[in-house]
Amino acid sequence: MRIHDKIDIYSLLDRKFNCPFCEKEHYIPIKLIFIGKDAISRIPYLISTLVRGKRILILSDEITYRVAGNKCEEVLREDYQVTPLILYPKGTKRVYADEKYLPEILAKAKNKDAILTVGAGTITDLGKYVADSLKIPVICFPTAPSMNAYTSGVAALLMGRLKVTLPVQPTRAVITDITIISQAPLDLIKAGFADSLAKAFANADWRISSLLTGEAFCLLPFKIATEAENKYIDKGDELVQRDERVISSLMEGLNLGGISMIIAGKSSPASGGEHLISHFLDMYAHFKGAEIFAYHGLQVGIGVIISSLIYEKLKVLSSREVRHLLSHRKIDYDKEMKFFGEHVPIVSKEFTKKLPVIKRLPELLPSLWDRIKEEAFSLVYTHQQIVEFLSKAECPLRFDDIGVNEELAYHAITKARYIRGRFTILDIADEMGILDEIVDKLHKGEI
Ligand SMILES: [Zn+2]
Ligand SMILES: [Zn+2]
Asked: Per the domain annotation, does 226 fall within a domain?
């Protein structure tokens, strides 16, 4: 494989290969990514090629069981010993990826040869986590093209009062029935679409961070996900009409987004500053004991709008202006973090991780600025493009659209940077005073 070759990532599954971009060896341990019509009836055959043993746990919740779990059970029953486990909400409106569901899943999954998850984010994360702890394979059967965790090597779970992202063994296969995912609730399809838009910005954030800190960077994740993205990004109108070709491309984009994270060995190519805004909103809701504001991807879409505005402001600056802006602003981090109240110690621990690079920005950033412009700013879409893409897919564009009031939106924009140790464009923007301009837009009702 060479840099300009068209990359067929599917031919590289489950084998080691040398990367033309970073020149390191990558390995994607997933064996199969299958998207097709009536894929559900092919499950028994596909599983027979992927799993040794006949004891399968089918994990779903009450909704996804009705959508596809019961049919999966039916088609597998002939050749397999199938145990269905249907999760019901415990104290919330719907089931979340919360550790309180783990004991019953662990109990049922013991002595099984594999777990088949039938669902979207929640069921997938719970199933991946349990399969990983029992060292058995997990196979994902998505019910919605709603996020990129089907193929990723992490599971996001609520542990105690915190959402944590844990490394897990990736799925052995993703088997997608295009007819089923095309009938998913529209909000889940929109959420997947908006989540996938993070890719360009996340990769740009990662490139900047790598230039500043020296952390490893590889362009392969960006390349593979972009090829799929080009097939759906400006077709939001067809997406909401449930066009199966476009939905199939979106699913492909999401799966490649998950694979990107495996290649990178971290979530950086799919999650940058825009994700911190969504995580901030989840954290806030969780601390208040409230339900989340909106699906992950829909919140990320708003984060992407913020990131696109920041990149727009930054790309016109010269290195001299950058130096000037950095020399003027002094932030009292402890005062800012007071917002988090009793959770300050957790937040502060995260923020401290990136403090050394933040402190060195006045020295590092101006001299790297031209390179950052060339290698990172070139990856992102303009603000106008992002608004067009999201509008076409009828996704929320403003905080208000997802029930976040102006005051909380202000905190999301200015405090999201503190909740994770990852260095993102939000850090640069705040250090340069650019976030103040974004907040102005918020107060004018523009975002
Ligand atoms: Zn590479
Ligand atoms: Zn995401």
From this structure: yes
Distance 199 CA to ligand 2 centre (A): 9
pLDDT at 3 over 70: no
Share of the chain above pLDDT 70, in %: 99
Handedness of CA 391, 393, 394, 400 (dihedral sign): negative
**Domain final residue pick, 150, 165, 183:** 183
pLDDT for the residue numbered 446: 86
Whether 1 maps to a domain, the answer reads: no
Q: If you measure from the C-alpha of residue 28 to the centroid of ligand 1, how many angstroms do you get, rounded to a whole number? A: 12
The sign of the torsion formed by the CA atoms of 386, 392, 396, 398 equals positive
Measure 440 CA to ligand 1 centroid, in angstroms: 40
Residue 10, helix vs strand vs coil: helix
Regarding whether 433 and 410 lie in a shared domain, the answer is: yes
Residue 94 is part of which domain span? Answer: 31-183
* Secondary structure letter of residue 151 according to DSSP: S
Please give the distance, rounded to the nearest whole angstrom, from the Cα atom of residue 326 to the centre of ligand 2.
Answer: 30
* Cα of 172 from ligand 1 centre, angstroms: 22
pLDDT digits over 110-122, tens only? Answer: 999 999 999 999 9
* β partners of residue 173: 32, 139
220 shares a domain with 93: no
Beta strand pairing call for 25-27 and 16-18: antiparallel
73 with 145, same domain: the answer is yes
pLDDT tens digits for range 287-324: 888 888 999 999 999 999 999 999 999 999 999 999 99
Res. 200: pLDDT tops 90: yes
Asked which of 183, 207, 238 is the last residue of a domain, the reply is 183
Which numbered ligand comes closest to the C-alpha of 263? 1
Rounded distance from Cα 234 to ligand 2 centre (Å): 19
Ligand number with the minimum distance to the CA of 304: 2
Query: What is the 198 CA–ligand 1 centroid distance (Å)?
Result: 20
- Ligand 2 centroid–CA 275 distance in Å is 6
CATH code (residue 241):
1.20.1090.10
31 conformational bin, left if phi > 0, alpha if psi -120 to 50, beta if neither: alpha
* Pair 275, 171 in one domain: no
Q: What is the pLDDT of residues 320-338, one digit of tens each?
A: 999 999 998 889 999 999 9
Asked if residue 327 is part of any domain, the answer here is yes
Which ligand is located closest to the Cα atom of residue 23? 1
Overall number of domains in the chain: 2
Q: State yes or no: pLDDT of 2 exceeds 80.
A: no
CA of 257 relative to ligand 1 center, distance in Å? 15
